[in-house]
Write a structure and sequence with these properties.
Layout lengths: L2 E5 L2 E4 L4 E8 L7 E7 L6 E6 L6 E3 L7 E6 L4 E6 L8 E8 L16 E2 L3 E6 L1
Parallel strand pairs: 2-11
Antiparallel strand pairs: 1-3, 3-8, 4-5, 4-9, 5-6, 7-8, 9-10, 9-11
């Protein structure tokens, strides 16, 4: 059984930082690309950041570039999202997801590209 468990969400103020973590089990983690998505109230789900199987390729949406950093530790089966300079518009439920394609660069940008999902963790940024 594949499990992706997110942690690290919470309520913070504008400008604060949070570090989200996703612990994976039940899959050959190093064979999977990983992504962090978010869904804000009243908005569609969007890919925030993604990383390929060995960490050599990453992707960020424009609104988080320079503020968020995605990384992975294949020895610990974890992927993290360091979020700095948080803004109220970053408020959302954040989900990690696993993509079984083992590409040299990130190619998976849609939710349907991903095979497994976590339950999500709430991030709320107050102004």
């Amino acid at each position: 059984q594949v499990l992706l468990v997110e942690s690290g969400g919470g309520l913070v103020q504008t400008g604060d930082s949070l570090r989200l973590a996703c612990a994976a089990s039940g899959l050959a983690f190093s064979m999977y690309g990983m992504g962090w998505f978010r869904r804000a109230p009243g908005k569609e789900r969007e890919l925030v950041a993604a990383i390929n199987w060995n960490g050599g390729s990453t992707y960020y949406i424009a609104s988080v570039k320079g503020r968020f950093t995605i990384s992975r530790d294949n020895a610990k089966n974890t992927v993290t999202l360091q979020m700095n300079s948080l803004k109220p518009e970053d408020t959302a439920v954040y989900y990690c997801a696993a993509d079984r394609r083992r590409d040299s660069i990130v190619r998976s940008f849609r939710g349907e590209d991903y095979d497994y999902w976590g339950q999500g963790t709430q991030v709320t940024v107050s102004s």
